[in-house]
Specification:
The chain is an alpha/beta fold. The chain contains 18 helices and 16 strands.
């Protein structure tokens, strides 16, 4: 007898179907778990490693739209994005089947099924998955509705590059702790996505993560925003207000762009972290806070410390664990899979038929340096989907700017000229935003807003 293929999870509300499938599949799988309802599916997925899921499309009597099956397909992909899912439907509805494939399913089987075909479909799904991903474990990473195939690309996508897999292993080790984490990486690499992934894997995930964009917090409102204030403590303080530290109690506080925090305010943040308490503006009473701190920056903080621009003691406090996200050009094997995820998402968003990349487009996307990383790729795909009128995306739809001085790359619009000027000044000033703003003759806040706009 051939080698058995690990564990299969079957979800169907027909107990007769479940019994028949157990008998049919026993020679082919080591473990066969059946669920008559998908309600407990998320917890069952966490119990062991699965090789494939056979998921019915309809669970509510009299409602045969398949939407419930698609909902549970998305839930599976959130929890185990690499886990193959074969859809089981009693209706030979090709549109629904195609939609299911686009939204993450590996294949589908129509009831009443052919035994040989069903077994072949399941084994092929397992085989294909094993060639792409080493494991489909409960902690294999999560994405949401539009990330893989059509899952939420605003959530973490791990890909298959060695660098990202090493990062993933480290994240899974440290996520369950309360250690302070510093995430570094270029703009557009997904630092906030990674912070949310860490939070979702932690014991604090029952409450939402609280995020603060440090580059967008004005100096005058820094203390009020982070520590809160008392009524009457300043002109517009019409009522007592809790700050972000208190809002993140028993949860995770994410401080994005920590390198943009002015030096004289860094001591106030350090004090709050060291004492594990804050004092609201206008009060003298310390308030204990229980938070898990995650910070992120695209700056070289050790270099800033050497230049006297960032406090060394604060760096030590926030840097118990350091996670570096590699740039997209350092993991070119992830470019096309990510592009396909964005294609699926934007086709759905703009109500367009699913389209595919031509070979020329694949080559062009793979060779592009992607200095704006995943954010730049996302914008390029969205623009291409909007203007595409065919069932394929050819290379010429992707007008990709390059960081060179060649005529082809010269700025053709005022916005491109402005973006290039900011880039050059950032390089010249080694990322010191105060110096960049002064040299460009704009405020620090205006500079920050323009950097956000251009993905710098």
């Amino acid at each position: 007898m051939a080698k058995k293929n690990g564990n299969i999870l079957i979800v169907d509300d027909n107990r007769g179907v479940l019994t028949a499938l157990q008998l049919l599949l026993k020679p082919y799988f080591e473990g066969i778990i059946t669920l008559p309802s998908p309600v407990t599916l998320p917890s069952v997925l966490r119990e062991k490693s699965w090789q494939v899921v056979l998921l019915d499309m309809n669970f509510t009597s009299g409602i045969n739209t398949g939407n419930e099956g698609l909902y549970w397909l998305h839930e599976i992909k959130k929890q185990c994005p690499a886990l193959p899912v074969v859809l089981f439907t009693a209706y030979a509805d090709i549109d629904l089947a195609v939609r299911g494939i686009k939204e993450g399913a590996t294949d589908f089987v129509v009831k009443p099924w052919n035994n040989r075909k069903l077994v072949e479909t399941l084994l092929n799904a397992v085989s294909a998955s094993e060639t792409k991903s080493p494991a489909n474990s409960p902690n294999a990473g999560r994405t949401a509705e539009n990330s893989h195939p059509l899952a939420d690309t605003r959530n973490m996508y791990w890909g298959n590059s060695p660098a990202m897999q090493q990062l993933r292993l480290l994240v899974e080790k440290v996520a369950s702790t309360d250690a302070n984490i510093l995430i570094t990486g270029e703009n557009g690499t997904g630092k906030e996505m990674l912070a949310r992934e860490i939070h979702s894997l932690s014991s604090r995930n029952r409450q939402d993560m609280v995020s603060v964009d440090m580059g967008a917090v004005t100096e005058s409102l820094f203390e009020s925003e982070l520590f809160g204030h008392m009524k009457g403590s300043f002109t517009d303080a019409h009522a007592d207000r809790a700050g972000k530290f208190e809002a993140a109690a028993h949860s995770t506080l994410f401080l994005d762009e920590i390198g943009n925090l002015p030096y004289h305010l860094q001591a106030k943040l350090l004090t709050a972290i060291q004492r594990r308490s804050i004092v609201r503006v206008g009060s003298n009473t310390p308030i204990p806070v229980d938070i898990r701190l995650i910070c992120a920056t695209n700056c070289n903080l050790p270099e800033m410390v050497a230049k006297g621009e960032f406090r060394e003691d604060l760096l030590y406090r926030i840097n118990t664990i350091h996670l570096e996200i590699p740039s997209l050009r350092e993991r070119p094997e992830d470019i096309i899979p990510l592009a396909e995820l964005f294609i699926a998402r934007f086709c759905k968003q703009y109500d367009k038929p699913f389209v595919k990349l031509t070979d020329g487009a694949r080559e062009k996307l793979t060779l592009h340096p992607w200095y704006g990383n995943i954010r730049e790729l996302e914008h390029a795909i969205e623009k291409a989907i909007i203007i595409c009128d065919n069932d394929t995306l050819p290379a010429e739809l992707f007008q990709l700017a390059r960081r060179t001085g060649t005529p082809e790359a010269s700025a053709s619009t005022l916005e491109e000229m402005e973006m290039q000027m900011i880039r050059k000044t950032l390089d010249k000033c080694s990322g010191n935003l105060s110096a960049v703003a002064a040299q460009l003759g704009i405020t620090r806040q205006t500079l920050y807003n323009k950097m956000k706009k251009y993905g710098l």
